[in-house]
Amino acid sequence: MKYPVYLKREIEQNHYQVKVPDLPGCQLTADTVDQAFFAIKETIASHLSILAEYGETIPHGKSIEFYQQQITGNVIWTIVDLDITPYLGKSHKINVTLPELLIKQIDDRVSKSPEYKTRSGFIAQACINELTK
Question: For labelling alongside 128, which of 2, 42, 60, 96 has CA 20 to 30 A away?
Answer without folding.
Answer: 42
